[in-house]
Amino acid sequence: MDVDRLTTVIEDFNTIFIRLPSVRRFNFSTLSVLHTLDRNGPLRLTDLLPTEQLKQPALTSLVAKLEQDGLLERRPDPSDGRASLISLTSAGQEIVHSRHAHRVAKLTALVDQLTPEERAVLAGSVDVLHRLTELAEDSP
Hints:
Blueprint: H1 3-17, H2 28-40, H3 45-48, H4 56-68, E1 72-77, E2 80-88, H5 90-111, H6 116-138
Helix pairs in contact: 2-5
C-alpha cells in the first residue's frame, strides 16, 4: 500500500470536505470544539485540551467567546463542585447538525456522480476508515 499517496489523498479530501457546508462559517478551532462536544458530551476544559490543538490559554479564551455567543454553557461538575463541565447549547447543537446535514447533501451530490463500481468501493471503505479512526483515538 502506498501510504504516502493515501495520506495525500486524505489531506486533499479533507480540504474539500471541511469546506462543503456553506452555512455559517467558523474557524477550524471553533468547529473542532463544537464537534468534539457534540460527539463526546459535556467535558471539563482539561479533558477538551488533548483533543484540540490549542494551548490552555487559547482554549480558555475560545470557550469563553463561544459561551458569550450562546453556543456553549458551563455548569458545575457533579463529581467535583470546583470544576465545570462545558457542553453545547441548543444553538451550538443546531450549528453542528445543520453543517452535518448540509455536508451530507453536498457529498451525496458528489457520490451520485461516481460510477456504480466506484460507489461500491467507497461503501466498502467506510468500515475501514472507521476502524482507522478508532485506532487513532486509542493510540497515545
